[in-house]
Write a structure and sequence with these properties.
The protein is of the alpha+beta class and about 400 residues long. The protein has a domain of about 220 residues. Helices cover about 35% and strands about 20% of the residues. It is built from eleven helices and 13 strands. Helix 1 crosses helix 9.
């Protein structure tokens, strides 16, 4: 039994319970790569170096990080670097936070064809926001927004949704910035209907093009009109969920939101409270009871299976930027938006010096010897990686 006295993280869960899971499951190449990275992160498997204190001679071993985007240990540093870059792109306007969610009736399709369904989701959300902003009765311009894909809920079940961070306004063709009404961006009911319509249209087209796998429809061997019609009916039974939070406020709040959603992984180590022989204890928020925290007991094999649901397809970009923030012509369009808003261009030299200062302070603290609290730790010898056996499934 591993309790709260011993720090338990995702890597420990995989190490302890992984052999039993792998004995019964075959991992895809992408999932096997993520598995190897997480269990090897900051261990001898990746190598590292020895650090020695200049004052007292005390040594410590420092192992390399895996830097995998699914690893909870590696996302803090990646998040800080990403936020520093995003801070240069913020506009001096109010921002809105929207969430577009796919109904759970699509979970079967998502499990079989994740890349196709995720691309459809990004396409439907971006087209919906762009269309509403371009409407002369609303803004009549091109919006600048960022989309972030999340695929999980608190218990690690599949819950696919996209977070959208949208500035309150749009850039018109003549370079003028048109601002949204205070506290209001787009009508949610209309947004939901257009989003559903665009997604279902893309779904139908994907079926015609043969991009969806037949097994996803209730395990049937082929696409049947009855099964397909039943799915479409279920998709229209309820309104699709689109959540919107009114203006977030200034740049500080916007950055807080960006940090909260941009580099979040399916499960953080802080939420893993401990594990028994065959059970993992998680901290979850109970939305039905006023967002209270409670402990959830999940069978270890179920925990691993659920975590692997959220491994993204190879090379898939889960954070995307559009409009003036998009990679095509961002420098020009963002400059136009700043000019229209009379906003000064961030000074790269100042930003870089701040980043260097923060990095230097963090490094000084990290390299200070904790044994004598005086000396500085310096690298004195490399540590070669220790080969580990490959992650395999059943024969």
């Amino acid at each position: 039994m591993v309790g709260s006295a011993t720090k338990v993280g995702l890597a420990e869960v995989l190490r302890c319970n992984g052999p039993a899971y792998l004995a019964a499951h075959i991992l895809s190449v992408a999932k096997a790569k993520v598995w190897r990275a997480i269990v090897s992160c900051r261990t001898a498997a990746l190598g590292g170096h020895v650090q020695t204190c200049q004052a007292c001679g005390k040594t410590r071993h420092v192992f390399h990080s895996c830097r995998n985007r699914h690893c909870p240990k590696c996302q803090t540093r990646a998040k800080e670097a990403w936020l520093a870059a995003r801070g240069r792109e913020l506009l001096p306007v109010a921002y809105f936070h929207l969430v577009f969610t796919l109904p759970h009736d699509l979970n079967g399709l998502i499990g079989q064809s994740p890349r196709t369904l995720y691309e459809m989701l990004f396409g439907a959300v971006s087209a919906t926001l762009t269309e509403f902003a371009a409407n002369p009765r609303r803004l009549g311009g091109t919006p600048a927004f960022t989309l972030v894909l999340h695929t999980w809920q608190q218990d690690l079940g599949r819950h696919v949704h996209v977070h959208a961070l949208v500035p309150g306004g749009a850039l018109k063709a003549d370079g003028e910035w048109v601002a949204a009404k205070h506290g209001f961006l787009f009508p949610i009911t209309a947004l939901s209907k257009v989003f559903r319509g665009k997604f279902v249209a893309a779904l139908k087209q994907a079926r015609e093009d043969g991009k969806l796998r037949a097994e996803a429809l209730r395990g049937e061997a082929s696409w049947t009109e009855a099964a397909w019609g039943d799915l479409l009916t279920r998709l229209y039974v309820h309104d699709w969920v689109v959540y919107a939070k009114h203006a977030l406020g200034g740049p500080e709040q916007v950055l807080e939101y960006l940090g909260r959603y941009a580099h979040r992984v399916a499960i953080s180590n802080e939420r893993i409270l401990g594990m028994d022989t065959d059970t993992v204890r998680l901290r979850v928020r109970d939305w039905a009871r006023g967002n209270r925290k409670r402990t959830l007991h999940v069978p270890a094999q179920t925990f691993i299976e659920r975590f692997l649901l959220h491994v993204l397809p190879k090379g898939f970009k889960r954070i995307r930027h559009y409009g003036p923030l998009g990679p095509a012509g961002k420098a020009v369009k963002l400059a136009q938006a700043r000019a229209a808003l009379s906003a000064p261009t961030p000074d790269p030299a100042v930003i870089e010096s701040v980043e260097q200062f923060i990095g230097r302070i963090s490094r000084i603290e990290w390299l200070r010897c904790k044994h004598c609290a005086i000396g500085r730790l310096i690298p004195t010898a490399p540590i070669a990686p220790v080969p580990v056996p490959p992650v395999r499934g059943p024969p």
